[in-house]
Design a protein that fits this description.
Elements: H1 9-14, H2 30-44, H3 48-62, H4 78-89, H5 95-109, H6 116-134, H7 140-163, E1 170-179, E2 184-191, E3 203-206, E4 215-217, E5 228-234, H8 240-248, E6 254-257, E7 273-279, H9 283-294, E8 302-308, H10 317-326, E9 330-336, E10 346-347, H11 350-356, E11 363-368, H12 371-384, E12 391-392
Parallel strand pairs: 7-8, 7-11, 8-9, 9-10, 11-12
Antiparallel strand pairs: 1-2, 1-6, 2-5, 3-4, 3-6
Helix pairs in contact: 2-6, 2-7, 3-6, 5-7, 6-7, 11-12
Bound molecules: flavin-adenine dinucleotide (FAD) and protoporphyrin IX containing FE.
The site of protoporphyrin IX containing FE has 21 residues, from helix 4, helix 5, helix 6 and helix 7.
Amino acid sequence: MTAPRLNSADQARANGLYTGPVGHGGAAGAESVVALIRESWARVEPESHDLAKHFYALLFEQAPETRELFPINMQVQRGRLLRAVVHVVHMVDQPDQLAPFLAQLGRDHRKFGVLARHYAALSQALISAVRQFNGPAWSRETEQAWVQAFELITGLMSRAAEAETGPASWLGRVIAHRRLSWDVAVVRVQTGAPIPYQAGQYLSVETPRRPRLWRYFSPANAPREDGILEFHVRAVPDGWVSRAIVAHTQAGDTWRIGPPMGQLPFHRTPGRGLLLVAGGTGLAPIKAMLEQLAQQSDSPRTELFVGGHGWSDLYDFASLRELSYRNSWLNVIPVVECEEPGASAELGTLADVITRYGAWVDRDVVVCGSPAMIRATVSRMLVAGTPLDHIHYDPFVMD
Ligand SMILES: Cc1cc2nc3c(=O)[nH]c(=O)nc-3n(C[C@H](O)[C@H](O)[C@H](O)COP(=O)(O)OP(=O)(O)OC[C@H]3O[C@@H](n4cnc5c(N)ncnc54)[C@H](O)[C@@H]3O)c2cc1C
Ligand code: HEM
């Protein structure tokens, strides 16, 4: 599922994003800006490892104080920021989704200590690195396309950061760590003041065992006045942060937590039921939404399909079933891809199983999980006839 694209420079201007011309002698549309960026990036992508090294060398030369914002061991993360920035630059033709995301990202970057002048240094370093690796294929138009994309992105980020008056981050104390399986743990963290998130949003987290390695996690509970957040963390193979959290986090640890991000919270349509689709730890934001619904008096008819490869991936199924016993408006359906003796679940991928039931036209649909799972589920639902404007998912997360 790809997001709607701009068809013309006029539409981009109408959205207030494009402020200046691209190319000398005239304005280029958003499409040609993105085409120039994509072409020039495709040429250097096979060398992105070396390009990343060069980019950081230039950044730290131009703005030496930025070195201490990054992890001590750059081997661990080297490609991460570069990948993120290039991903964003490739999306400048999707302003409706990009603008709110960048505003949140700018507010979030205050926790690193990023200042307005660092954006200029990063833009220059990245453009210089891409220019150098492009060699003679680099043109003046290409340069201007990158410059314009960066002006747009860094302008949105730094303006949002300057306008924000809330804390750049919150300190939280781990009050409980419970392993649900060999690879999944539930961690409860309490912050001094509650973080102003909405059910369905995510937060970035830095833990004491992995300083300066921030990762996103979604609270699995609705906001509470006592500031308690529950996270579901799955250890991924070779994962620096997730494995440390699952295996080594202890009550008493202090976590640093960034401001809320994500565009999942949406206005429900009166009279429409809900279809919730959760893959893996995509269950966490869905659980937060369920908890919020359970606090209301008018909870809509809700079907939750929760899926995994095998039964053991449905790590929280017992508590979901209990929730459905307590709330008659909720029906929970387990879905697994591999048949297992004695397990009573629907068989197939989440996309297979949901579309077997039809188009769900009377529902608002929420899909949470890995980007691949979201893409597969949303595209199959569209083919099955679910109206696009009924389907809600976070349009802009990093793979
Ligand atoms: C918006 C958002 C919300 C998220 N919410 C949650 C959540 O609630 N709970 C949760 O457990 N995780 C969540 N994640 C994933 C989490 O942020 C980390 O990416 C994940 O924990 C891996 O980090 P790591 O440092 O352990 O792995 P890294 O050291 O960054 O990566 C190690 C290896 O694992 C691969 N890898 C990275 N992420 C994954 C993945 N998800 N699955 C399989 N392989 C991977 C990498 O490509 C690399 O090869 C969320 C991610 C996003 C973008
Ligand atoms: C063009 C504007 C920028 C964009 C789009 C951007 C985007 C991002 C994203 C999405 C991440 C999270 C990566 C992930 O965990 O997957 C990140 C991390 C980070 N960013 Fe930025 N960023 C920008 C500018 C900057 C600037 C100017 C600085 C400071 C010099 C900076 C410093 C960092 C640091 C320190 C991290 C965490 C460490 C790391 O992941 O390497 N960013 N950025």
